[in-house]
Structure formats: structure tokens, C-alpha cells
Amino acid sequence: MNIHEYQGKKILKSFGVRIQEGIVAATPDKAVEAAKELQKQTGTSWWVIKAQIHAGGRGKGGGVKLAKNLDEVKQIADQILGMQLVTHQTGPKGKKVLKVLVGQDVYYPGESETQEYYMGVLLNRDTGRNIIMYSPEGGVDIEGVAEKTPHLIFKEEIDPKVGLQAFQARKIAFNLGLTGGAVKEMVKFVYALYAAYEGTDSSMFEINPVLKTSDNLILAVDAKVTLDDNALFRHKDFKELRDETEEDPIEVEARRFDLNYVKLDGNVGCMVNGAGLAMATMDMIKMSGGDPANFLDVGGTANAKRVEEAFRIILKDPNVEAILVNIFGGIVRCDRVAQGIVDAYANIGDIKVPIIVRLQGTNATEGKALIDKSGLKVSSAIALEDAARLVKEVVG
User: Fold this and answer.
1) Which of 134-138, 188-192, 208-212, 285-289 is predicted with the least confidence, judged by mean pLDDT?
2) Which one from 206, 308, 309, 321 is the annotated catalytic residue?
3) Regarding the domain delimited by 247-395, which CATH topology (the fold level of the hierarchy) does it fall under?
4) Would you call 118 a catalytic residue per the annotation?
5) What does pTM read for this prediction?
6) For domain 109-243, which architecture applies?
7) 191: left (phi over 0), alpha (psi -120 to 50) or beta
8) Marked catalytic residue, from 117, 118, 134, 345
């Protein structure tokens, strides 16, 4: 689950990470109020206005601007709020900005001793260990740094048996070229950042940039945080951080019916039970000349109602030219899936796209009989090869 920058910074601050202070606002007038409050709290006389969307590259898209007085705060907030912000991570449609973060200016006017770094904490799935990835080239596109100057990307892997060690935190500071008091401050920062990552059961914490000020303070100027959905039961208050306006509306609807759905860009919708079978089905669609339009796992307890809702969700995608249902009945009963297909036809109305159904396992014979007796225009298959052949015929 992605969250906004201002939410991520609040979490970081609660774990002792020094941050660029800021107040979120949804109108230009509220932005001015936020700027005045920040001036009281921090003494700042300049402010940075930052669009709050779930995407990076906001500055290049015009979503981050500096205001040098309160009139500029209002003017810039008015420009950013409501804009369709397009970045390299949003796609060509962009995302509508509904909130801005009014932050203190931490780049002291006239100072030349500030330095920007990149730092991220995530799981290395190859080794099953957390890693801290960092670079002295912060504040820019980190993907470009990795591509053009890979020697400037450092990684520190954490042994889960002993956790983050002091020598590792110091090594990070030295690799970033820090000396003197800045080393001590960076060590504190690294420890607090790692504690926030572990303490929130997150999938990723990315700070770009981490800033060293001229007086050797180390702080997070940005925060990109991804929380692990599977751990939200341990952090019930985090559920309130979800912003469904930032998510695909079809995926939001699917979640309400406990369907694991991810929209893709292809033309063949697929409905499967089990993530492994879903991945294999998507590969099969690709090998048959089509492209998967979605990942949709109805789960091991699928009933007729859930299957009907899955059909409704798949059919919301105008790019879908065919639907492949591939069910292996272990816990789930194939006759229930078949009944869901029949109900979907009856309740949704005229389904114009061809449907291919492969049922194997528990009550597969009964499920096939239900579909055959219904008189529906559904192609059935027994073997995966048959399903692949039918997909190929449908997509031409």
C-alpha cells in the first residue's frame, strides 16, 4: 500500500528521523495558513509547495515549487492543486493533485555546503535479507544513476540474526564522504530509518533526497513509503492512510470483494484460483499470441457470487476481447465456479466477448454439465493445450 509523502514523514518522525517539517493543505487559502504556522514553528521565511500524489518525478512535472512570500504560496498552491500532474511514473494520463504539502525551506539561502544523498531500505528477495541502498548522488533520478554510474550505488545487507550493526551505519556515512559531526548525525539517521522500516512492516522506504545541511544536520526532505498489505492486521491505524483516489478504481472495487486483481494492458482477461496458476495462465496467454489484460485470483473459497463479481470487474476493461477461466478444483469446487459463470450471463446481460472455460479437479464433471445445459456460448477445454489453442483462435 503506497502512502503520501506527508504521511510517510509523519511515520519517520515518530521513529526519531529528522524531517523537513510541513503541513498538508487542500486549498490555496489553507496553504497560506499552513505557511504562516510553519513560520511560527520553524522560523522559515521561504516555503516549498509539493504536490501529493503516489508517484516520483514530481519536480520535473511542475509539482514542486519554491515560494518566497505568502502571495507566492497562494499563487503556486492554486497552480498545483487540481492539475493533472504527469511524471515518468504516472503514465501519460497523469494524476490529479488534490493536496499539497507546504514544507519549510531547508536549503538555507546563500549556503553552498549542503549535500543531497539517496537512501532506500527494502528486501533483497534473492537473499531474503533487508538491504540499505544508498548513493552520494541524491536528488536526481536514481535509476539513471544506477544505469550510468553504477559504482555510485552502494548496498549494505542486514543479517536478520543480529540486525543493523554500528559498523554498517558508520560505513554508510564514510561511503557518502561524510566527516566530523556529520558522521555521527548520519549514523543516527540510518538507525532511525531502519527502525521505521522494520517497525512498520514496510516493503520499502525511499528517501530522495537525504539532506546534509551546512551545519551538519541530516534530514529526510522526501519520503516514498510502501506498506505491506499483508501486515496491516498488525497496524490497524495504517488502514486510514490508504488514499483510494490514487488507486485504480477497478482494483479498489475488486478488493471490496476479496479478489486479488491487478489491471494490465493486454486483451485477454483471465480468472484463476491461486497465484501460481494465475502466473502460468498469463504465460500461456502470452505464448498463444495474446496479452493478459489482468491478474485475477478468485481465491480458494470462491463461490458463485464471487465469480460473478469477478466477471463484472473483468468486463469493465474495454480492452478485453476474450476471457479465459482456468480453475483447478482443490478447495474450490468447479461446480460453484460454473454456477457463477451461468449467473454472470443471466445477471450482467449480453456478454459479447467470447469465454473459454477450463475446469479440472473437484466436481469438474458437474461444473461442465452445468455449463453445457445452460446453452451459453462458452468454449470448454480440459487440457491446458486445448485452452491455449482456443485463446489463439479467439485473438487471431
Assistant:
1) 285-289
2) 206
3) Rossmann fold (3.40.50)
4) yes
5) 0.81
6) 2-Layer Sandwich (3.30)
7) alpha
8) 118
